Amino acid sequence: MLSSDKVARITAAMPFWLTYILPPLVWLGAVQGGLWVLLPPLATWYLFSALDAALGLNRENADPLTEERQLFWYRLGVVCWAPVQFLTLYALIWYLGRADHLSGWETFGVMFGTGVMTGSVGIVYAHELLHQSNRVERSLGDWLLAMVLYSHFRSEHLLVHHLWVGTPRDPVTARYNEGFHRYYARVLRDCPVSAFRAEAALLKRRGLPWWHRRNPFWKYAALQLAMAALAVALAGWFGLLFFAVQAGVAIWQLELTNYVEHYALTRRHLGEGKYEHVKPHHSWNSAHTATNWLLINLQRHSDHHYKPDRRFPLLQTYEETEAPQLPYGYPIMTMAAMVPPLWRRIMNPKVRAWRRTWYPDIEDWAPYNKAQTPTPRGAG
Questions:
Q1: Which residues are in the Fatty acid desaturase domain (predicted)?
Q2: Which helix (H) or strand (E) element contains residue 274?
Q3: Pair 203, 215: CB distance under 8 Å
Q4: In which element (H, E) is residue 269 found?
């Protein structure tokens, strides 16, 4: 176990700052054009996967009792990303709105690369920030989500996913044999409604109507409108197109990650709408070193569900006997998810082995496969 003193060193935090190579890579594509526009996806999906192959697994855990003050360099890297992304995104919109040296496919390549940046890093950092109690950090998380038109993710993630993961109430728990493309259409349809229901129910318990000013959906709408309006102000309809394309790419990456994280891992129904507590074996994990740098330990997902407010450098990894492990890091697994037959070939045997290990007494999995077990009691 890494001691608190070792965790606190700047050298221990620096690998997580590698994500800051992405803004210069996006700018390189915007200025140079050509194949340079491919650098952001090549770096995030392939370079970090290659580093995984070279560096192997990191099963070392930091001392979870490390004090907040000793995590300064980690927190700084996350907090600084919000202004860096904001300036990069809108400067690119302004620049490309006036540039005439790029072809149509090169322009789209820059938009796509920007979405890789705002999705692979921006949404992951927003996820880290929205789990914190600090108001400034949570506000920065809201700004990052508004930059990709996915503000409702905060409500869905905090009020639904963490409570009801592995049950029919959680839209983002992918079902057994559900291909990503079908899953993607379903979550785009269901998640905003699910998030709004959760916020309305919370307000009702406080004796307030859904239209009360404390409903964060008003804030979500205002922030997203402001972000889109700024894009238009900087580059007209082209700016809005750029903004929408990068947001779409970012959302696609987020939902690919959601799909991988809990694919077919369901909680046991105990009867009368009761479900077992969330346990480490209800999340897929990966200990691949480099992609955990890129995704600030998001792949240590079981511990995140155990301690949602635990800051990312303190998240603990698990052995195969405690939680299921992915054969590769998230970038390779999400690429596999885009090809459903390949995904099923890789993952369905692992799901069946998981079921034999953790639930050998369950003979009929059909209701779990189709999310037809009862709605959790209290979920609404």
A1: 105-334
A2: strand 274-275
A3: yes
A4: strand 269-271
